[in-house]
Every structure is written in structure tokens, then in C-alpha cells.
């Protein structure tokens, strides 16, 4: 094979290896980066094969089609071959990200593909668990998420979550293969929603990516279907993705292609969840949801969440936006579409902060004359798209006809944030003072376009009791399962 191997030759090379051997080596290396508290263990990343590299290897292994040889990766020689393949993946430079003709966009492209590839898998499992337990169990007169969930996935969310936790911890504990067989039988009724035949996987995947140049950063259907079946055998090549598959991917699948339901979800579930977590902080005297009011131009809606603390006001517009699949392929029209949507949401928040609040409506029971600089706004999106904030703010300023360098433009950039739901959860669950962070951010021009208000900071304070409870529940799930294994004869 020589010392150097080209990425674009890998599909031909991988046909020589048995399908089971490829799935097995992917699984073995995926296990190395798993963690109980995070989706992957970021501390292990420097010494292991990286998650997105393993996902690319698994995708190449599945998509390359009919194997004609039965080679494997056993022993030192096999391990060396695998390392060479992984080096070829690691050293590959995406032509669009590293192209001379795209130099002006290099930074923007690099942020999008690295952000989407690297950051979601480092999120805290317990925060994500808390979110989806709330969302999938939410019901009011407009929507019953448990009913919608069960109709689509044949069981309650808790069963999916239990399966995720049990698999996650089983792989981390290097459990015996017979334990995995037992799990597959016990949860067969829900695994059928998480499994896909190799041929169908390739058919789905080819709708998103047909060019192997996009494999490294492109969307991969392992997130939705972690189990692959082939020749009547079941494989789980990337166990590090299992918690994703039983949380955010289930929401994506539940609302996919149904704009009406996605709108109901955004209006009812996401808004109520935001109100719920902001109230959890006990930092605000009043937290209000949206309402309709009459203006000179007829009926209008307020922003989704409005909160007051002393003489500070915090207003939120929530968007159930998730990155379009083509964003990872750096499709220009998708990048532009995302920028436009975010900019329009920023414009809405700006107009409410500067023209409507106090002039057209006032939501709070205590009258306060807010200083303009003490009114803050945020667009909170369900999932981050890693579009550079300065680009969005400039587009919003153009839509508002604001000249750059004016005090109005400075207010737009200093007092309005675009935050992912996860960055808001971090502030709440780690006990940070939200207003204090907004003020710090406003006063520091270098942080105006940051993706979150915390940087790399971790709170010294205790994580909220609600998260401790989730952690205990997740551990209890595993303890109960271990007892069950003993009862059925595993030692």
C-alpha cells in the first residue's frame, strides 16, 4: 500500500475487506471515545481516531458495495492498515474548503463544516436528556407530543432513552457480545425504528451525498439509523452516536417534511420549554409568553418570551431551525437561505426592542422606564448552524437600512444575540446570571459576534438539581438493567 494512501482510492481498497470486519473495527474505535456525561469524550479525542473520521470510514465501508475479498484488521498488521486508512481520511482536504478560488469564503466555510461536525457531539448528555424528556412528554390543548411520538415510533420516548443509556454504558463497560444480543431482543420493538438495511441506507444517503469529497463533513444517516442490517446480521458500527439517535434525531424524524407540525412544535413545545427553563433560573421577577395585541395596523404578536429583572428586559424570539442537510455540503444557496432566515429573525427582534415594546405593548405588571441599552434580545434556534454572526448582523442591518458604525447598528450588534438552545441551557443549568452575561457581552465589542455568552467558561456553581435528578435517573436505568441481567443468568 506504500506509506501514503489517497482518500479517493479508499472505496476501491475497502472492497477487499469483509463487511463484518469493517463494522467491527469502526465499533471498536467508536467505543474508545464514549462517555457517560458527554456524547463523546473530548478529552480522549487527542489520542483516538476522531468521531467524524470514524463516521467517514463507516460511510465509505457501507457505500462501497460488493466486497470481493475477506480481509480483516486483525493483529498488528491489520491495525497498521486501519491506521493508514484513517490517516488518509484525516489528511484529506475538502476542495471547497481549501480551494484557491474560494479563499474569501475560507473562514466561513471552515466554521460551518467544523462546527457542524465537531461541536454537537461534545454536548452534555444530561442537558439533552432533560430537553427531550420535556419536549416528547409535552401536551396542551393544541398538541400531544406523547401521542405523536407513539404513533410514529411505536413506543414511549422513555423506552428509547433507556435503550440509548443502556447501550451507551454497555459499550463503555465493554460488555460481553451476548449482552448486546440480549439488548437487541429485549428492545426489538423499538430497534426496528432505528435499523436500516445496507441497501436502503445507501439509497437514502445518495439523496444527500453522492460525491465522496463530501463524505468527511456531509450529513450521515447513522445519526438516524445507528443499526445497519446486512445478510441477516445486525451491526452497530458507531455506538458513540446512539444518544443522538434517541434524542435530537427522533425529533428531526418526527417533524421531517411536515411544516404544519413543525410550526406547532415551535409555537407550543419550544416556546414553552424556553419559558420553563428561564423560570427555573429564578433570576427574573416575571416571565411572560407571547400574546396578541392591537396596534394601529391591526392585530400583532409580541415576541415569544419576555422577562424582566429590576430595570433590565430580556426578549426572545424562538425558531425551531435546524441546519439543512445541504449546509454541510456548503451549497451556496443553502448558506444564503440560512443567513436570510436568521437576519429576518434578528430584524423582528430589533423592531420589537426599539419600536414596539413600551410604545405598542407592555407585558409586565410593574412599570419600568427601561434605558435602551438595558433592553436585550435574542433569537434562539433549536440547533446551531455555525453561520458567522457578523455576516447575519450586516444582512439584518441592510434589511433595516441601518448604516454601519451608527449607534443603531452598534445597538443591533451589542444587544441582540443569536444563540442555540444548547447555549441557553448551559447558562441555565450551570447557574450563570443571564443578565450579567448579556451586559458583559454588550460592553465588550470583541464578543458581540460570539456564538454563545460563556466562551469556554465552566461554572463553579453546582449544576441545577433538575440535572442531578436526570443523572440519577440515567444511572438508575443502568442499575436496573444490571439487576435484570443477573436475574436472567448473566454473571
Description:
The protein has 491 residues and is of the alpha/beta class. The chain has helices at 10-14, 19-31, 51-63, 75-91, 106-118, 125-136, 145-153, 157-172, 177-186, 188-191, 198-208, 242-245, 248-255, 259-280, 332-356, 389-400, 407-415, 421-429, 434-443, 465-487, and strands spanning 195-197, 227-230, 233-235, 286-289, 292-295, 298-301, 305-309, 312-319, 375-381, 416-420. The strands form three sheets. It has a five-stranded mixed beta sheet, with helices on both faces. The protein is globular. The protein starts with 9 loop residues before the first helix and ends with a helix.
Précis, in short:
The chain has 491 residues and is α/β, with parallel strands linked by helices. The protein contains 20 helices and ten strands.
Please render the helix and strand layout as text.
Blueprint: H1 10-14, H2 19-31, H3 51-63, H4 75-91, H5 106-118, H6 125-136, H7 145-153, H8 157-172, H9 177-186, H10 188-191, E1 195-197, H11 198-208, E2 227-230, E3 233-235, H12 242-245, H13 248-255, H14 259-280, E4 286-289, E5 292-295, E6 298-301, E7 305-309, E8 312-319, H15 332-356, E9 375-381, H16 389-400, H17 407-415, E10 416-420, H18 421-429, H19 434-443, H20 465-487
Parallel strand pairs: 1-2, 8-9, 9-10
Antiparallel strand pairs: 2-3, 4-7, 5-6, 7-8
